[in-house]
Amino acid sequence: MKKINICLIIITSVLGVISALSDLDRSIAFILKDLSIVITISLTYILNKVFKIHISEYFSFIYIIFIFMAHYLGVIERFYGEFIYYDKIVHTLSGILASYAAYLFLKGKGIKDTLLNIIFIISFTFLCAGFWEIFEFVCNIFFGGDAQKVVETGVDDTMWDIIVAFIGSLIFTVFITIKSKLIKN
Questions:
Q1: What is the pLDDT of residues 116-131, one digit of tens each?
Q2: Burial class (CB in 10 A: 0-12, 13-18, 19+), 113
Q3: Taking Cα atoms as reference points, which of 78, 77, 16, 24 lies closest to residue 42?
Q4: pTM (2 decimals)?
Q5: Residue-level pLDDT at 148
Q6: Whole-number Å distance between alpha carbons of 133 and 30
Q7: How far apart (Å, rounded) are the C-alpha atoms in residues 7 and 28?
Q8: SS (HEC) of 51-74
Q9: Higher pLDDT, residue 154 or 14
Q10: What pLDDT, on the 0 to 100 scale, is given for residue 14?
Q11: Which class for 129: exposed (0-12), middle (13-18), buried (19 or more C-beta within 10 A)?
C-alpha cells in the first residue's frame, strides 16, 4: 500500500508542477495553487515525519484520492466549474473522510460509549468543514476569486458544503455503528 501511495503522490505532484509551468504567464496565485498540491498530497507523510503522528497507509490512500479529486481535478483542472454537482460530491466525501479520521482517533483511545463516539465523530466533521470554509474564505480574500460564490449566492454555497459534509458524516456514522453492533453480536 505504501508503494501505491508514493506512486500516486509522485504522479499527482508531477501533474501539479506541469500545471504550474503551463500557468507561468498567469498570476502568482495560479502558480502557487498548482504547486501547493505537492505539500497537500504529501501531508500524511509530512505529519508522520515531522510530528511523529502515525497515519495508516489505508487512511493515507483515502486522503490521497480525496486530495486528487478535490485539489487536482477540482481546482487545477477546474472540475468545480465544469460539473455542477462535483463540489457537493467532494464535500460529502470530505465528511466521510473526517468521520473516518475521528473514528480512528476514538478507536485508538478505546472509548466504547456509542453515543459519545457518534457525537464526537459528527462534531469533528463539523469542525473540519467549518475550518475548511474559513480557509477557503481567507484564500479568496488574499488571492482573489470567489470559490465560495459569495458574490453570486452569499452564504448559500458555504452552507451547502457544510450540510453535505454533515450528510457524509451521518452516512459514515450509521455504517460504523451498524458494523460495530454486528461485530459484537
A1: 889 999 999 999 888 8
A2: exposed
A3: 16
A4: 0.74
A5: 53
A6: 20
A7: 28
A8: HCCCCCHHHHHHHHHHHHHHHHHH
A9: 14
A10: 94
A11: buried
